[in-house]
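Case study.
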Amino acid sequence: MALTLNHLFAVIMLSGAFSLVSAMLFVVMDAVDVAFTEAAVGAGVSTVLMLSTMALTVRIQKEKKKPIILPIVVICLVGILLIYGTLDMPNFGAFDSPAQLHLGSKYLDITYKDMGIPNVVTGILASYRGYDTLGETVVVLTAGLGVILLLSGLKGRKNKE
Amino acid sequence: MKHHLILKVITKFMVGVIVLFGLYVQFHGDYSPGGGFQAGVIISAAFILYGIVMGLKNVQKVMPVWFAQKAAAVGVLVYALTGVFSLIFGFEFLNYHAISPEHPKHGQHYGIILVELGVGITVSFVMIAIYYSFAGRTPRLDDKEW
Amino acid sequence: MDINLDFIYGHLPYWLFIILMLSGLFIVVSRGNLIKKIVGLNIFQTSVFMFYISIGKITGGTAPILLDKSYSNSDVAYSNPLPHVLILTAIVVGIATTSLGLALIIKIREEYDTVEEDDIQKMDEKDLMTYNKKNVLEFKS
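After joint prediction, the assembly is written out as follows.
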Protein backbone atom coordinates (compact mmCIF):
# COMPACT_ATOMS: atom_id res chain seq x y z
CA MET A 1 0.00 0.00 0.00
CA ALA A 2 2.73 2.41 0.91
CA LEU A 3 4.14 1.81 -2.54
CA THR A 4 1.18 2.93 -4.60
CA LEU A 5 -0.41 5.61 -2.44
CA ASN A 6 0.35 9.19 -3.31
CA HIS A 7 -1.32 10.74 -0.29
CA LEU A 8 1.44 11.03 2.28
CA PHE A 9 -1.06 11.32 5.15
CA ALA A 10 -2.32 7.82 4.42
CA VAL A 11 1.22 6.51 4.03
CA ILE A 12 2.25 7.87 7.44
CA MET A 13 -0.85 6.55 9.15
CA LEU A 14 -0.24 3.12 7.62
CA SER A 15 3.33 3.19 8.87
CA GLY A 16 2.03 3.90 12.37
CA ALA A 17 -0.36 0.95 12.11
CA PHE A 18 2.51 -1.18 10.86
CA SER A 19 4.46 -0.27 13.99
CA LEU A 20 1.58 -1.37 16.22
CA VAL A 21 1.24 -4.69 14.40
CA SER A 22 4.98 -5.29 14.65
CA ALA A 23 4.76 -4.56 18.39
CA MET A 24 2.23 -7.39 18.63
CA LEU A 25 4.60 -9.62 16.71
CA PHE A 26 7.33 -8.79 19.25
CA VAL A 27 5.01 -9.87 22.06
CA VAL A 28 4.41 -13.17 20.27
CA MET A 29 8.17 -13.64 20.06
CA ASP A 30 8.55 -13.09 23.84
CA ALA A 31 10.21 -9.68 23.59
CA VAL A 32 7.87 -7.72 25.85
CA ASP A 33 10.29 -4.87 26.53
CA VAL A 34 10.94 -4.40 22.83
CA ALA A 35 7.20 -4.48 22.06
CA PHE A 36 6.63 -1.82 24.71
CA THR A 37 9.23 0.45 23.15
CA GLU A 38 8.07 -0.15 19.60
CA ALA A 39 4.45 0.64 20.48
CA ALA A 40 5.40 3.88 22.24
CA VAL A 41 7.98 5.00 19.71
CA GLY A 42 6.66 3.77 16.39
CA ALA A 43 2.98 4.44 16.81
CA GLY A 44 3.33 7.51 19.01
CA VAL A 45 6.33 9.77 18.63
CA SER A 46 7.45 8.76 15.15
CA THR A 47 4.00 9.28 13.63
CA VAL A 48 3.71 12.72 15.22
CA LEU A 49 7.13 13.77 13.92
CA MET A 50 6.39 12.53 10.41
CA LEU A 51 3.03 14.31 10.39
CA SER A 52 4.62 17.58 11.46
CA THR A 53 7.25 17.17 8.75
CA MET A 54 4.47 16.59 6.24
CA ALA A 55 2.68 19.73 7.43
CA LEU A 56 5.92 21.67 6.89
CA THR A 57 6.64 20.25 3.44
CA VAL A 58 4.14 18.62 1.08
CA ARG A 59 1.08 16.47 1.44
CA ILE A 60 0.91 14.74 -1.90
CA GLN A 61 3.66 12.93 -3.69
CA LYS A 62 4.24 14.05 -7.25
CA GLU A 63 2.81 11.54 -9.65
CA LYS A 64 5.54 10.39 -11.90
CA LYS A 65 6.32 7.18 -13.62
CA LYS A 66 9.82 6.17 -12.75
CA PRO A 67 11.56 3.18 -14.29
CA ILE A 68 11.31 0.38 -11.77
CA ILE A 69 13.15 -2.38 -13.60
CA LEU A 70 16.54 -1.59 -12.12
CA PRO A 71 15.25 -1.45 -8.50
CA ILE A 72 13.43 -4.76 -8.98
CA VAL A 73 16.60 -6.39 -10.29
CA VAL A 74 18.59 -4.99 -7.37
CA ILE A 75 16.19 -6.17 -4.69
CA CYS A 76 15.85 -9.59 -6.34
CA LEU A 77 19.64 -9.99 -6.19
CA VAL A 78 19.77 -8.85 -2.56
CA GLY A 79 16.88 -11.15 -1.68
CA ILE A 80 18.44 -14.20 -3.28
CA LEU A 81 21.70 -13.55 -1.45
CA LEU A 82 19.96 -13.10 1.90
CA ILE A 83 17.80 -16.21 1.52
CA TYR A 84 20.89 -18.16 0.52
CA GLY A 85 22.42 -16.93 3.77
CA THR A 86 19.51 -18.20 5.86
CA LEU A 87 19.77 -21.75 4.51
CA ASP A 88 22.48 -22.62 7.01
CA MET A 89 20.59 -21.18 9.96
CA PRO A 90 18.96 -23.35 12.61
CA ASN A 91 15.18 -23.64 12.60
CA PHE A 92 13.04 -20.87 14.00
CA GLY A 93 12.51 -21.45 17.72
CA ALA A 94 15.13 -24.18 18.04
CA PHE A 95 16.28 -24.52 21.64
CA ASP A 96 19.72 -25.83 20.69
CA SER A 97 20.74 -23.14 18.22
CA PRO A 98 24.16 -21.54 18.78
CA ALA A 99 22.55 -18.28 19.85
CA GLN A 100 20.86 -19.96 22.81
CA LEU A 101 23.74 -22.04 24.09
CA HIS A 102 26.38 -19.58 25.24
CA LEU A 103 25.77 -16.07 26.44
CA GLY A 104 21.98 -15.93 26.78
CA SER A 105 21.60 -18.80 29.20
CA LYS A 106 24.59 -17.55 31.19
CA TYR A 107 22.93 -14.17 31.67
CA LEU A 108 19.68 -15.86 32.69
CA ASP A 109 21.64 -17.85 35.22
CA ILE A 110 23.67 -15.12 36.90
CA THR A 111 21.38 -12.09 36.80
CA TYR A 112 19.34 -13.02 39.84
CA LYS A 113 22.39 -14.16 41.78
CA ASP A 114 24.24 -10.91 41.11
CA MET A 115 21.49 -8.34 41.41
CA GLY A 116 18.33 -9.86 42.78
CA ILE A 117 16.05 -8.51 40.08
CA PRO A 118 13.87 -10.79 37.98
CA ASN A 119 13.81 -8.77 34.74
CA VAL A 120 16.91 -10.04 32.98
CA VAL A 121 16.62 -7.51 30.14
CA THR A 122 16.92 -4.58 32.55
CA GLY A 123 19.80 -6.29 34.32
CA ILE A 124 21.80 -6.73 31.14
CA LEU A 125 20.87 -3.29 29.82
CA ALA A 126 21.84 -1.30 32.89
CA SER A 127 24.56 -3.34 34.50
CA TYR A 128 26.33 -5.92 32.36
CA ARG A 129 26.21 -3.71 29.28
CA GLY A 130 26.34 -0.36 31.01
CA TYR A 131 28.95 1.04 28.63
CA ASP A 132 26.72 0.20 25.67
CA THR A 133 23.76 1.98 27.17
CA LEU A 134 25.84 5.02 28.05
CA GLY A 135 26.87 5.22 24.41
CA GLU A 136 23.30 4.85 23.19
CA THR A 137 22.14 7.62 25.52
CA VAL A 138 24.84 9.91 24.19
CA VAL A 139 23.76 9.05 20.63
CA VAL A 140 20.16 10.00 21.44
CA LEU A 141 21.34 13.28 22.98
CA THR A 142 23.51 14.02 19.95
CA ALA A 143 20.68 13.37 17.51
CA GLY A 144 18.46 15.68 19.55
CA LEU A 145 21.14 18.37 19.49
CA GLY A 146 21.39 17.96 15.73
CA VAL A 147 17.67 18.48 15.28
CA ILE A 148 17.69 21.53 17.55
CA LEU A 149 20.62 23.05 15.65
CA LEU A 150 19.07 22.34 12.27
CA LEU A 151 15.57 23.57 13.00
CA SER A 152 15.85 26.38 15.52
CA GLY A 153 19.38 27.70 15.25
CA LEU A 154 19.53 29.31 11.84
CA LYS A 155 16.39 31.39 12.12
CA GLY A 156 18.08 34.12 14.19
CA ARG A 157 21.04 34.39 11.87
CA LYS A 158 18.81 34.81 8.82
CA ASN A 159 16.88 37.62 10.49
CA LYS A 160 20.05 39.52 11.29
CA GLU A 161 21.19 39.34 7.69
CA MET B 1 -7.92 23.05 17.34
CA LYS B 2 -10.36 25.55 18.82
CA HIS B 3 -13.54 23.54 18.65
CA HIS B 4 -12.49 20.08 19.86
CA LEU B 5 -14.07 20.19 23.29
CA ILE B 6 -14.15 16.44 23.91
CA LEU B 7 -10.51 16.07 22.93
CA LYS B 8 -9.52 18.85 25.30
CA VAL B 9 -11.39 17.42 28.29
CA ILE B 10 -10.09 13.91 27.66
CA THR B 11 -6.55 15.22 27.22
CA LYS B 12 -6.64 17.06 30.53
CA PHE B 13 -7.72 13.84 32.18
CA MET B 14 -5.26 11.60 30.35
CA VAL B 15 -2.03 13.60 30.67
CA GLY B 16 -1.72 12.94 34.38
CA VAL B 17 -2.47 9.27 33.97
CA ILE B 18 0.08 8.91 31.19
CA VAL B 19 2.82 10.60 33.24
CA LEU B 20 1.95 8.41 36.24
CA PHE B 21 2.15 5.31 34.08
CA GLY B 22 5.48 6.50 32.72
CA LEU B 23 6.84 6.87 36.25
CA TYR B 24 5.58 3.38 37.11
CA VAL B 25 7.34 1.96 34.06
CA GLN B 26 10.48 3.88 35.04
CA PHE B 27 10.78 2.72 38.63
CA HIS B 28 9.19 -0.71 38.35
CA GLY B 29 11.33 -1.67 35.39
CA ASP B 30 13.40 -4.14 37.40
CA TYR B 31 10.40 -6.35 38.11
CA SER B 32 8.18 -5.96 35.07
CA PRO B 33 8.72 -4.97 31.45
CA GLY B 34 9.95 -1.42 31.34
CA GLY B 35 12.92 0.80 31.98
CA GLY B 36 14.35 4.16 31.14
CA PHE B 37 13.90 4.09 27.39
CA GLN B 38 10.21 3.16 27.47
CA ALA B 39 9.40 5.51 30.34
CA GLY B 40 11.13 8.40 28.63
CA VAL B 41 9.13 7.94 25.45
CA ILE B 42 5.84 7.56 27.36
CA ILE B 43 6.37 10.72 29.43
CA SER B 44 7.33 12.70 26.34
CA ALA B 45 4.22 11.32 24.60
CA ALA B 46 2.10 12.90 27.37
CA PHE B 47 3.64 16.33 26.72
CA ILE B 48 3.36 15.92 22.96
CA LEU B 49 -0.33 15.03 23.31
CA TYR B 50 -0.87 18.13 25.43
CA GLY B 51 0.99 20.22 22.88
CA ILE B 52 -1.02 18.91 19.95
CA VAL B 53 -4.40 19.44 21.55
CA MET B 54 -3.85 22.59 23.63
CA GLY B 55 -1.43 24.39 21.39
CA LEU B 56 2.30 24.92 21.59
CA LYS B 57 2.12 28.02 23.76
CA ASN B 58 0.25 26.28 26.56
CA VAL B 59 2.58 23.31 26.74
CA GLN B 60 5.57 25.63 26.74
CA LYS B 61 4.20 27.30 29.84
CA VAL B 62 4.44 23.94 31.60
CA MET B 63 7.72 22.86 30.04
CA PRO B 64 9.77 25.79 28.73
CA VAL B 65 12.00 25.24 25.72
CA TRP B 66 15.22 26.10 27.54
CA PHE B 67 14.37 23.64 30.32
CA ALA B 68 13.75 20.74 27.93
CA GLN B 69 16.96 21.44 26.05
CA LYS B 70 19.12 21.68 29.13
CA ALA B 71 17.54 18.85 31.08
CA ALA B 72 18.31 16.46 28.22
CA ALA B 73 22.00 16.86 29.00
CA VAL B 74 21.41 16.34 32.74
CA GLY B 75 20.35 12.73 32.10
CA VAL B 76 23.64 11.82 30.46
CA LEU B 77 25.38 13.61 33.32
CA VAL B 78 23.53 11.48 35.91
CA TYR B 79 24.54 8.34 34.03
CA ALA B 80 28.19 9.32 33.66
CA LEU B 81 28.49 10.57 37.26
CA THR B 82 27.27 7.19 38.49
CA GLY B 83 30.26 5.73 36.68
CA VAL B 84 32.64 8.35 38.03
CA PHE B 85 31.30 7.73 41.55
CA SER B 86 32.43 4.13 41.43
CA LEU B 87 35.77 5.24 39.98
CA ILE B 88 36.32 7.53 42.97
CA PHE B 89 35.71 4.69 45.42
CA GLY B 90 38.27 2.48 43.78
CA PHE B 91 36.08 0.26 41.61
CA GLU B 92 35.80 -0.01 37.83
CA PHE B 93 33.78 2.50 35.82
CA LEU B 94 30.05 1.73 36.23
CA ASN B 95 30.70 -1.03 38.76
CA TYR B 96 27.73 -0.54 41.09
CA HIS B 97 29.27 -2.52 43.93
CA ALA B 98 30.82 0.77 44.96
CA ILE B 99 27.47 2.15 46.12
CA SER B 100 27.25 -0.28 49.01
CA PRO B 101 30.32 -2.53 49.13
CA GLU B 102 29.08 -4.73 51.97
CA HIS B 103 25.83 -5.56 50.13
CA PRO B 104 26.73 -5.94 46.44
CA LYS B 105 23.15 -6.86 45.53
CA HIS B 106 21.80 -3.64 47.01
CA GLY B 107 24.52 -1.67 45.29
CA GLN B 108 23.57 -3.20 41.97
CA HIS B 109 19.94 -2.37 42.59
CA TYR B 110 20.61 1.29 43.42
CA GLY B 111 22.99 1.58 40.50
CA ILE B 112 20.44 0.24 38.05
CA ILE B 113 17.78 2.63 39.32
CA LEU B 114 20.15 5.62 39.00
CA VAL B 115 21.29 4.68 35.54
CA GLU B 116 17.76 4.06 34.30
CA LEU B 117 16.78 7.43 35.74
CA GLY B 118 19.51 9.08 33.68
CA VAL B 119 18.39 7.28 30.53
CA GLY B 120 14.75 8.20 31.16
CA ILE B 121 15.54 11.90 31.69
CA THR B 122 17.62 12.12 28.53
CA VAL B 123 15.18 10.27 26.29
CA SER B 124 12.08 12.10 27.48
CA PHE B 125 13.55 15.60 27.24
CA VAL B 126 15.26 14.92 23.93
CA MET B 127 11.95 13.78 22.47
CA ILE B 128 10.17 16.85 23.86
CA ALA B 129 12.90 19.15 22.50
CA ILE B 130 12.69 17.49 19.08
CA TYR B 131 8.92 17.92 19.08
CA TYR B 132 9.30 21.60 20.03
CA SER B 133 11.71 22.29 17.22
CA PHE B 134 9.42 20.58 14.68
CA ALA B 135 6.25 22.25 15.95
CA GLY B 136 7.88 25.64 16.45
CA ARG B 137 8.07 26.26 12.72
CA THR B 138 5.00 27.76 11.08
CA PRO B 139 3.36 25.20 8.82
CA ARG B 140 2.27 26.04 5.30
CA LEU B 141 -1.12 24.40 5.76
CA ASP B 142 -4.16 25.79 7.52
CA ASP B 143 -6.33 23.72 9.78
CA LYS B 144 -9.00 23.68 7.09
CA GLU B 145 -6.80 22.21 4.42
CA TRP B 146 -6.58 18.89 6.21
CA MET C 1 21.25 -30.05 4.29
CA ASP C 2 18.08 -31.82 3.22
CA ILE C 3 15.09 -29.79 2.19
CA ASN C 4 11.91 -31.19 3.71
CA LEU C 5 8.73 -29.73 5.17
CA ASP C 6 10.29 -29.28 8.59
CA PHE C 7 13.12 -27.24 7.12
CA ILE C 8 10.69 -25.03 5.20
CA TYR C 9 8.50 -24.39 8.25
CA GLY C 10 11.54 -23.62 10.33
CA HIS C 11 12.86 -21.08 7.86
CA LEU C 12 9.62 -19.50 6.67
CA PRO C 13 9.70 -16.72 9.36
CA TYR C 14 13.18 -15.65 8.28
CA TRP C 15 12.10 -15.51 4.65
CA LEU C 16 9.03 -13.45 5.51
CA PHE C 17 11.21 -10.95 7.39
CA ILE C 18 13.55 -10.80 4.41
CA ILE C 19 10.63 -10.10 2.05
CA LEU C 20 9.44 -7.31 4.36
CA MET C 21 12.95 -5.90 4.41
CA LEU C 22 13.14 -6.01 0.63
CA SER C 23 9.87 -4.11 0.32
CA GLY C 24 11.33 -1.41 2.54
CA LEU C 25 14.48 -1.36 0.40
CA PHE C 26 12.34 -1.14 -2.73
CA ILE C 27 10.55 1.94 -1.40
CA VAL C 28 13.89 3.56 -0.58
CA VAL C 29 15.36 2.83 -4.01
CA SER C 30 12.44 3.42 -6.32
CA ARG C 31 10.42 6.31 -4.87
CA GLY C 32 11.56 9.88 -5.28
CA ASN C 33 9.68 11.53 -2.43
CA LEU C 34 11.98 11.96 0.56
CA ILE C 35 9.29 11.45 3.23
CA LYS C 36 8.32 8.18 1.58
CA LYS C 37 11.95 7.19 1.62
CA ILE C 38 12.02 7.70 5.39
CA VAL C 39 8.91 5.52 5.76
CA GLY C 40 10.66 2.86 3.69
CA LEU C 41 13.72 3.09 5.91
CA ASN C 42 11.46 2.61 8.94
CA ILE C 43 10.00 -0.57 7.45
CA PHE C 44 13.50 -1.79 6.64
CA GLN C 45 14.66 -1.09 10.19
CA THR C 46 11.69 -2.77 11.85
CA SER C 47 12.08 -5.91 9.78
CA VAL C 48 15.73 -6.16 10.78
CA PHE C 49 14.62 -5.86 14.42
CA MET C 50 12.11 -8.66 13.88
CA PHE C 51 14.84 -10.82 12.41
CA TYR C 52 17.08 -10.26 15.43
CA ILE C 53 14.28 -11.03 17.89
CA SER C 54 13.33 -14.17 15.99
CA ILE C 55 16.85 -15.53 16.50
CA GLY C 56 16.39 -15.39 20.27
CA LYS C 57 12.97 -17.08 20.32
CA ILE C 58 12.61 -20.56 21.80
CA THR C 59 9.49 -22.56 20.95
CA GLY C 60 7.42 -22.90 24.11
CA GLY C 61 9.60 -20.35 25.89
CA THR C 62 8.41 -17.31 27.77
CA ALA C 63 9.55 -13.72 28.21
CA PRO C 64 12.87 -13.40 30.08
CA ILE C 65 11.40 -12.21 33.38
CA LEU C 66 12.25 -14.86 35.93
CA LEU C 67 9.21 -16.53 37.46
CA ASP C 68 10.92 -18.29 40.32
CA LYS C 69 14.07 -16.72 41.50
CA SER C 70 16.62 -19.27 40.39
CA TYR C 71 17.18 -20.12 36.78
CA SER C 72 19.24 -23.28 37.05
CA ASN C 73 16.74 -25.57 38.78
CA SER C 74 13.55 -24.40 37.09
CA ASP C 75 11.83 -26.17 34.24
CA VAL C 76 10.64 -22.98 32.50
CA ALA C 77 12.27 -22.12 29.19
CA TYR C 78 13.08 -18.43 28.67
CA SER C 79 13.83 -16.81 25.34
CA ASN C 80 17.26 -15.33 24.88
CA PRO C 81 17.34 -11.85 26.49
CA LEU C 82 20.42 -10.60 24.67
CA PRO C 83 18.77 -9.70 21.31
CA HIS C 84 16.04 -7.90 23.26
CA VAL C 85 18.59 -5.63 24.93
CA LEU C 86 20.31 -4.79 21.65
CA ILE C 87 17.07 -4.06 19.81
CA LEU C 88 15.55 -2.08 22.70
CA THR C 89 18.29 0.51 22.50
CA ALA C 90 18.36 0.36 18.70
CA ILE C 91 14.69 1.37 18.46
CA VAL C 92 15.17 4.54 20.50
CA VAL C 93 18.35 5.46 18.64
CA GLY C 94 16.42 4.75 15.43
CA ILE C 95 13.71 7.27 16.22
CA ALA C 96 16.31 9.87 17.18
CA THR C 97 18.15 9.45 13.88
CA THR C 98 14.87 9.35 11.94
CA SER C 99 13.93 12.71 13.42
CA LEU C 100 17.32 14.04 12.33
CA GLY C 101 16.52 12.88 8.79
CA LEU C 102 13.12 14.56 8.93
CA ALA C 103 14.77 17.80 10.08
CA LEU C 104 17.11 17.58 7.11
CA ILE C 105 14.09 17.13 4.82
CA ILE C 106 12.54 20.30 6.22
CA LYS C 107 15.75 22.21 5.54
CA ILE C 108 15.91 20.78 2.01
CA ARG C 109 12.34 21.86 1.39
CA GLU C 110 13.20 25.40 2.52
CA GLU C 111 16.24 25.55 0.30
CA TYR C 112 14.85 23.93 -2.86
CA ASP C 113 11.07 24.30 -2.39
CA THR C 114 10.54 20.64 -3.21
CA VAL C 115 11.12 17.24 -1.59
CA GLU C 116 11.23 15.25 -4.83
CA GLU C 117 14.61 13.74 -5.48
CA ASP C 118 14.81 14.26 -9.25
CA ASP C 119 13.71 17.90 -9.03
CA ILE C 120 16.48 18.52 -6.51
CA GLN C 121 18.97 16.85 -8.81
CA LYS C 122 17.86 18.96 -11.77
CA MET C 123 18.22 22.16 -9.76
CA ASP C 124 21.66 21.08 -8.58
CA GLU C 125 22.79 20.44 -12.14
CA LYS C 126 21.47 23.81 -13.24
CA ASP C 127 23.32 25.52 -10.40
CA LEU C 128 26.49 23.72 -11.32
CA MET C 129 26.16 24.73 -14.97
CA THR C 130 25.72 28.42 -14.17
CA TYR C 131 28.59 28.23 -11.70
CA ASN C 132 30.85 26.64 -14.31
CA LYS C 133 29.86 29.18 -16.95
CA LYS C 134 30.66 32.01 -14.59
CA ASN C 135 34.03 30.48 -13.79
CA VAL C 136 34.85 30.01 -17.49
CA LEU C 137 33.95 33.62 -18.24
CA GLU C 138 36.10 34.83 -15.40
CA PHE C 139 38.95 32.65 -16.56
CA LYS C 140 38.72 34.05 -20.11
CA SER C 141 38.63 37.66 -19.03
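Observations recorded in class. The two ends of chain B are 12 Å apart (CA to CA). Chain B touches chain C at residues 31-33, 35, 37, 40-41, 123, 126-127, 130, 133-134, 137 (CB under 8 Å). We will return to this complex in the next lecture.
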